Amino acid sequence: CVHLTNGGFLLLPHISGVKEDIFWKHNHNKMVEWNRMRPGISEYLQFQQRTQLNTETGDVTVTGVTTADRGLYEAEITVNRKIKRFTQQVDVIDPVRNTRISCDVTGSTVTLVCEADGPLLSYSWTGPGLQNPENRSQIQISQENLGSNYTCLVKNPVSEETQNYTAGDCSTRGEEPRASSDLYLPSFLISFVCVILLHYSILFYYRRTKNH
Q1: DSSP string, 141-190
Q2: What is the model's pTM?
Q3: How far apart are CA 181 and CA 188, in angstroms?
Q4: CB of 138 within 8 A of CB of 113?
Q5: Which H/E stretch holds residue 193?
Q6: Which of 2, 57, 141, 183 could connect to 167 by a Cys-Cys bridge, CB 3.0–4.6 Å?
Q7: Residues facing residue 167 across a β-bridge
Q8: Which residues pair with 61 in a beta bridge?
Q9: Using one digit for the tens of pLDDT, what is the confidence trace for 14-33?
Q10: How far apart are CA 206 and CA 60, in angstroms?
């Protein structure tokens, strides 16, 4: 049972009969309780002013959920002087957020990389010319599809988010291709340097032999 932070969740014990006493615990600590013989509902610890207890069904709603609310929930409900129990494991996670797409150009290859913040993320893509677009955070775009639009979908168990990107934007935004090495010199420049070095080597040798 997975829920979204800042949201809420409802716990349903499905225990029938007229309730005499309702006692909920979170990770073995008191959470909320009610007794027919006493007025009012008592809330404890971080659940104060955050629960709504239905005294007829035993259902409890928790609001303003945070990751501190994950864990084991237990209900002890007395019906006809007999205690009936219910347990539910709850996980609370953050939503997908800050989805973004960046591009990388290496030679003639354009790669789109999708990233996002949040736990338990899965990625998928839509767009022309894609092969096996599921469960991949990055895709490679062929030259004939550089003007096409691609969409990255990021999901986790409680939310999803999409981001669009036009592959041709990678070159129009001034991003330079990454070379395969850290230093790149054109061939004509290398030849020029070699000629200069050769010239100075000959001149040095000539002066040395003349002095002797």
Answers
A1: E-GGGTTSEEEEEEEETTEEEEEEEETTHHHHTTPPPPPSSS----HHHH
A2: 0.63
A3: 18
A4: yes
A5: helix 187-211
A6: 141
A7: none
A8: 10, 52
A9: 999 999 999 999 999 999 99
A10: 98
